[in-house]
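User: Can you help me understand a structure? I only have the sequence.
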Amino acid sequence: MHVCLTIDFEQDCPPYLNGWRGASEGMPRLLDLLGREGVPTTVFSTGEAAERFPAVVERVVTEGHELGSHGHTHANFPELSDDRAEWEIATSAEVLRSFGPVTSFRAPNLRFPVRYLPLLERHGFTVDSSQGRYKPREWGRRPAVTSLRRLPASVTSSVLRAPRALRDPILTALKTPVVLFVHPWEFVDLTHENLRWDCRFKTGDPALDCVREVIRFYRDRDARFVRMGELG
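Assistant: Let's start by predicting it. Here is the structure, written out as C-alpha cells:
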C-alpha cells in the first residue's frame, strides 16, 4: 500500500480566519514530526504563503519533500473567470518554481472545474489532486479526458483528528494509493476560535499526536509513504 500524507500550506482556516499562525508556528512543528518519523510529504503551497514564508518553503525542499501548487491566493476556482484562473495557476507556478521543481497541483477546497485541466497541462503540471473521494458530487462522475494523473484525497483532514475508535476503521477501509491531507493551522490551538466544530476540535498538540498515530497505524501495516509525484 502507498500512502501520501500531504500538507496544504495556506493562511489560517480560510475563509473564516485571516492570520498565518499555522505557517509560522504549526508548520515547523509538523515538519519536525515528519523528520523524526522519516516520512516524505508533498506540500501544496499557495504562492502567497511561499512569498510570506520563503524560509519554510526552502526547508521543505531542503529536507527532501515535494513542493506542489495550491494556487496563488487560495481563491475558489469555480468562481473565477478563465483569465483569473490561469493567473492563479501561472503565478503560483512561477513563485514556487523559484524554489524547485513543481509538477503537482491541488485546488483550494478540492474544487476545480474540469474545463481548467488544460491550464494545468499548459503550465507543466502532471499530477492533479483536486478531487475528494469522500465528496458525493464526485461519485459516479466520468473521468475527465486529460494527460494528468488525477489522485483524489481519500478522506477529509478532520478524520485524522477523530477518536481512534472511529478513525482506524475508516483508514483500514481506504484503498491504495491513500491520499491524506492536513493544514498547518490544525497544529495551532484553535479550540476557542469562532469556527465550525470540525475545524477546531483537537487542534494544537492533540493534532500532532494524531498524525503520529496515523503514521504508525500505516507503518504497522507495511505501508510505504511516498510523495505525490512518485505516483504521477
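Now, to help you interpret it: The mean pLDDT is 94. The two ends are 16 Å apart (CA to CA). Let me know which part you'd like to focus on.
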